[in-house]
Amino acid sequence: MMRVAVAALVTILSASASASEPTPAQINQIEAVLGLDAAIPAVVDKAIPAEAATVWTPAQRACVVGGFSREFELRLQASLGRGFASGENIETWIAFSRTAGGKKRMDIFGRAVTAAISGATSPDAQSEAASLSAVEQKDILDFMATPAAKLLDGDLIPGFVASDAESQALAHRVIAACDLPSTSGSR
Q: Is the pTM value of this prediction over 0.90?
C-alpha cells in the first residue's frame, strides 16, 4: 500500500515538473512578441491626468511615469506568467511568431492592442485573414492545432486590469514615492 502511494506521488510530482513555469526571459520575449512592451508607455500616458503637466515639475512627472511603468510592468509580467502557464507554451508562441503566418498574426494583434489603448479602430481580422497567403494560412492552422493555441480560449493576461481599489492603492504608492501632494492636499 505504501509503495503504491509513493509511486502515485512520484508520478504526480514528475508530471507537474514536466511543464516548467515560464522564466523571466520567456515572459519578456512573449511580451515583446505580443507588442505589449510598447503598450506600457501608452497606458501610463493615459493614466496621468493632462492637468498634471501644469502642476508637476519635470522631475515629478518622470518619477510618476517611472513609478507607474514599473508597477504596470510587474503586473503585466505576473499576468503573462499566469496566462501562459508554462515555458513550453511561450516557446510554442515564440516559434509561431517566427513563421510567416505568425508574423502577420502578431502584427494584427499588436495593432489591435495599440488601437484599444488609443481608442482607434481595431484592424478588421476578417479582411486581414482574407489577405493571407496559403503558407501563412498553413502556419496559423498548424499553430491552432497545438495545446498552446488553446490559451486563446481564455485570458492571456489574467488579473492585469486593476480593480478600483488596486488602482487607488497604486496611485497612493506612487504619490508617496514621488513626494507629490495627494488629491486631498495632504501628504
A: no
